[in-house]
Amino acid sequence: METILEISEHIDPSTVYSELSHPESGGICVFVGAVRGVTKKEKVTSLFFEAYKSMALKEMQKIADEAKEKWNLNKLVMKHAVGKKNIEEPVVIVGASSAHRDDCFKACRFLIDTLKENVPIWKKEFFENDEVWVSSHP
Amino acid sequence: MNILLFGITRDIVGRHQLDGEEFKDLSTVGDLRNHLQQKYPDLQKLSSLNIAVNEEMREDSFIISGRDEIALIPPVSGG
C-alpha cells in the first residue's frame, strides 16, 4: 500500500485527492482538522503545534500499518502541521482510498482517532490573555 | 544520555534538553521519572508523564543506558 506520512510547517489539503486517487479505488475518504476560533466559549487567537518528529513519524507508520491490516486500502495519507497556526488553517489531514466506501470511511476515522491518542505532537492554545498546553493537566 | 523535553515539560524545566550526566546513576525509566518529579515538582501535576527510550514508549521497569535518547512525553494533543 502506498503511504504518505508528513510532518511539516505547511500542509496542503488541495493535493490530497491526487495523492489518494488510485485505479482500483472507487472511494476516497479524507478528514481535515482545522484551527477553531473558540474553545469552551473562549476566543482562541491561534494554536502552536510541536512534534517529536522522528518518533511521531514512527508512530504514524504503526497506525498506517494497523489500518492496512484491518481494511483493504490502496493508498493512505497522514499529515500534521507544526508551528503557529491561525484560525481556519488546516493542521491535520488523514485519508485513505479503497475499492468501496466502507473501508475508507472506517479507516479514516481510525487514522484521526489513533493519531490524536498516540502520536507525540502537542498543541498550545493561545487566548487573548492566556496560553495553555492542551490536555496537560487533569 | 540526552533527555529531550517537549510541550509543557520544556516550559516546566525551562530547557529543550537535559544533559544525561546528572542521571547516569539511574537505572530504569521509573527511577528517572521519580528523580525528575522530585527535582521539578510541577511535573507531578501533569495528567500523565510517559518516557520514550529511543523513540519507543517504555514501562517503568525498562533499563536505560548512557547511549539512549530519552524523551519526556507529557499528554499528547495533536490533531
UniProtKB/TrEMBL annotation, chain A:
Pathway(s) per entry: Cofactor biosynthesis; molybdopterin biosynthesis
Catalytic activity, reaction form: 2 [molybdopterin-synthase sulfur-carrier protein]-C-terminal-Gly-aminoethanethioate + cyclic pyranopterin phosphate + H2O = molybdopterin + 2 [molybdopterin-synthase sulfur-carrier protein]-C-terminal Gly-Gly + 2 H(+)
The UniProt record lists the keyword Ligase: no
Record flagged with keyword Metal-binding: no
Pfam families referenced in this protein's UniProt entry, alphabetically: MoaE (PF02391)
Record keywords, A-Z: Molybdenum cofactor biosynthesis
Matches recorded under Gene3D superfamilies: Molybdopterin biosynthesis MoaE subunit
E.C. number: 2.8.1.12
Taxonomic superkingdom: Bacteria
Similarity annotation: Belongs to the MoaE family.
PANTHER family from the UniProt entry: MOLYBDOPTERIN SYNTHASE RELATED
Subunit comment: Heterotetramer of 2 MoaD subunits and 2 MoaE subunits. Also stable as homodimer. The enzyme changes between these two forms during catalysis.
Protein name: Molybdopterin synthase catalytic subunit
TrEMBL record, chain B:
SUPFAM superfamilies: MoaD/ThiS
Keywords, sorted A to Z: Nucleotide-binding
Domain of life where this protein originates: Bacteria
Pfam family of the protein (one): ThiS
Signal peptide segment: none
Similarity remark: Belongs to the MoaD family.
Protein's UniProt name: Molybdopterin synthase sulfur carrier subunit
